[in-house]
Amino acid sequence: MPRPKIPRNICGHPADSCFKPNRIPMSQLEKVQLADDEFEALRLVDLLKMQQQEAAIEMGVSRQTLANILKSARFKVMDCLTQGKALIMHHEEEKEE
Q: What Pfam families would the database entry show (predicted)?
């Protein structure tokens, strides 16, 4: 049984819930889910240019955990960009509705 996921501090939210290739209906696209913590890690490190240690403290996780989250998030984004998949992002409030 895996360890329980510790809560992460998430401050940023995506401007939209989905990014997809032009001219292809969503029903025809493979979808990739970007988790809240993956979005936040990308926002802090790649957009706000924080060092990984600083971003890890901001999110309330270890630096190694942040590095693992970033690796997963960057793979998903590149998979969508290179393979023409839809990138789906929902934050917790939207999931409960």
A: DUF134 (PF02001)
